[in-house]
Design brief:
heterodimer, A: alpha/beta, Rossmann fold, 6-stranded mixed sheet, globular, B: mainly alpha, two-stranded antiparallel ribbon
Amino acid sequence: MNVFELEGVTKQYGRRAALRGFDLSLAPGESLGLLGPNGAGKTTAIRLLLGFSKPTSGTVRLRGLSPSDPTSRVGLGYLPERVQLPARMTIRSLLFHHAALIGLTGAAADLEVDAALEQTGLVERANERIGSLSKGLMQRAGFAQAFLGSPDLILFDEPTSGLDPIGVRDARDWIASARERGCSVMVSSHQLSEVERTCDKVAIVNEGQVIASGGIRSILNDGESLEDAFIRLVRQERK
Amino acid sequence: MRPSSSAIFLELASEALWDATRRRIVPMIAFVSLISLLAVDSCTSCGSGNITANGQVVPVSEIAGWTGMLVIASLSMWMMVLAGILASDHLTEPLSDGSANLVLSRPVPRGAFAGARLAGALAIAMATAVVVLGVSAALLHLRSGLPLLPAALAGLACLAGSVVVGSLAMTLSLMTTRVATAMLVMVFVGAVTFINSLGLTGVELGAVGTAIQVLTPPLSTAVVVALAPWTDPVVPDVDPIIMMLKLCAWMIASVGILLVTFNRFEIRQ
């Protein structure tokens, strides 16, 4: 069974179609890069998977369930494009709050929170208020909450925005380590290099449709980089 | 692993309560409540003596019940408005700043999230109501000898009314702005109170007034009916059991409307 599936999904916002006959799936253990220009429909697809909105038509399944069923989100990590965290909380209290929401309490919560802080390099800053953090540290805190409880599926929406080059490198390593332990990963981004380094499959989205998908090598022509292929496919579609 | 719904609700509700206590409006509520209590202290300070009305001398003790009813009913309406104002952005704020997204990406039922945000806002409103109404009732008891039980029942009616107004305000806030919601709360509570009061005096309400009286929650009527023993022998011609059942039905329905609306709500941030 696929981890998630979107089949023939259309999403209308008034007269504007954010998605049109959108098809996408992810098998267990796969890492998929969702590439597309701004406004292509990448975030809309993620929002449908999380049950934040409902498709106008078509089917969305998360672990075989409707995304409106909270059980479908068990073992799911999510990092939104613009991480917004409660300013008054400390990083540690935020993580304990999320630990409680996934059923971790007591010693298990302590272990998971410490592991997430350690992984994202936030141990020293754990007791700082989120409101006082820089954008980059806020993004790290966002990563920490996404990794909490060792999820088996993580959805990253523009995960490296706001990170400095060291942070970007760290983020790639964190995503790679999640993949190594068998976690299914979807990275939505318009940073082609980021997807090339972290994913083994890509889906290119343009104007609400998946215009190409498959292994990275399978969509490249001879001597072509992912960037070249992306521009070729998007331009071809626009004609 | 998925925690139980009650564990999720408690976690979210304590978080929502923390959030509510840190809002800028809370010191203002404390200040206005203090002013209200000072006004009540002033209003109830004349426990004995006479007043002259239309040339007739009336002992103050004879109108203490009416004074007490006016004080408690007015404060109850203000407490319901407060519940509505607090609820008018307590759900929409985390939705609009995006901080709700991470919570709702967890195995959290939407109903638990909305219910917890409502509980957080109502906890502040209810705590204020308990203090303000409690102190007022105590002053009326000590200075005018008014029994406490009617005041306690009126307090319960006020709390139930606060749940109704808070839930409806929170639902409305999903469809309109905070300012519009707050204005509509004031208009709604004001209109219902006016019509309820007219209904209690036996005035002919007309078609619109009757419709409001029948179709809206008995916010003011329930409070006044609870306080009826204070104005004995003048008792409003309303069955208190029916009145309380109607208010309870409204309480359940308004929370249900909020949960259903939020379940269907598109989170766009």
